[in-house]
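Retro notes
What went well: the complex prediction finally ran end to end.
Inputs used:
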Amino acid sequence: MEMRTLRREDFDYIINMEPRWRDMDGLRHINHATYLSYLETVRIQYMEKLGYDVNDWDRKRSSILASMKIDYHQQSSFPNQYEIGARVIRIGNKSFDILNALFEQNNSVPVVTGVFTVVGFDYAAQETIPVSERIKKEYRPF
Amino acid sequence: MEMRTLRREDFDYIINMEPRWRDMDGLRHINHATYLSYLETVRIQYMEKLGYDVNDWDRKRSSILASMKIDYHQQSSFPNQYEIGARVIRIGNKSFDILNALFEQNNSVPVVTGVFTVVGFDYAAQETIPVSERIKKEYRPF
Amino acid sequence: MEMRTLRREDFDYIINMEPRWRDMDGLRHINHATYLSYLETVRIQYMEKLGYDVNDWDRKRSSILASMKIDYHQQSSFPNQYEIGARVIRIGNKSFDILNALFEQNNSVPVVTGVFTVVGFDYAAQETIPVSERIKKEYRPF
Amino acid sequence: MEMRTLRREDFDYIINMEPRWRDMDGLRHINHATYLSYLETVRIQYMEKLGYDVNDWDRKRSSILASMKIDYHQQSSFPNQYEIGARVIRIGNKSFDILNALFEQNNSVPVVTGVFTVVGFDYAAQETIPVSERIKKEYRPF
């Protein structure tokens, strides 16, 4: 999949996000790791939409990040207004992949794209669990 | 000044801010230091309103934080919607004080309040400079 | 108390800390809020020394930050080696004050100093509790 | 390459790193994005060893992160002592790959591993530049 050619239209679920001044590092662009906190927030909001409770800290029916592949296409800085898309592009028995792309306003090329492999996880038992039916319904491959 | 009794009406300048999931720490409330990044962003947006250019990295006519006094009145967590007020409550020759208060929606008592003593500073020369006339106009004591 | 004249010798408890590159902000010095994460870590290590368990997440016998007064005396940047002192300078029934000072190597003047007012707190019951006898023993006023 | 089977012995260059309390998130483990700030610091220290000056902010002979692939093998929490290895495992004309692995003490399986594709970059001209001869000497494929 060619990440750089992803566009807003490739996503049904889009969240707005504003950077903070501190999100810039010494190079005066948004730090590479800070984008991941934006995307994490979007994943969690997306999960809330699917019926998960972010404040259910028992986390018996939760998930854990197993791996991610991130591509940085452009630099970006504060101030800004971002739109971040999320899409479930793979479903397995115990894991699924979420694709994210982050866009600046008036710029069709994404700043950052990422694929996150998330595993169903019971934090209390510390063991993997099957992907829920609700998430399976979100599956929308390319 | 009784910080806990500050209200939105005490501020002319108010900015909205949304927490991110990562802003919570292991105690599952917004971390005390993270609020300071919210308030920093508000100070910078306020300075932009007063004619400063956040991207003027020469910073010959900038300012530096000398001290701050922060009071934590309530705990707060993600997700949330904050309103943050800013007000110049003291003006000196080379420094001034900005008062900030952060409010949750539907809650009149502030979560956090702070007074920031900011000194006019030329980063190129690394020396203090007088407070600008533009900032002096913002002076609004209690 | 004149914070700028604090010296290493004013502290019995000193912890080493190393900055990370990301601790610098767009001004290429350590960000004002990031120092607070250093000092937070030192407070927690200090509490561990006094018998508290950082991984006791029930937090029935814990504490919460009520306020802080921070003074920034010098700028500092990555890479660096810091020494951070901690000292209990006030004891009340339900609260106490910890003084912190952060020093660069080969520099007797502190970079940052702070006084943190900490309240005994039961997170489960969400109510204040008396200061423990163990902390009272640490009291060492100026 | 099987990331989970990487061991300390696979690395010549190893740096120690200590987590801070704030590095934990609401799940009370080190946040996935925070590991990237550890690895960033190690990359920068590694570049310093190769003759780059971290404080050369002109950055005419610098580099920029193009992409990364991160695998999370275990959870980890504060307090801890980490060892982080770095190794150049691919060299191209204008880019190279650094492999990182982060280990807890007394644990041979890595907590996190990552491959970072870094592009030679002139920040002043905002254009890619060839990989330096000095970095090419570090090339050590599997």
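What we learned: The longest helix of chain C spans residues 34-49.
What to try next: split runs per interface for comparison.
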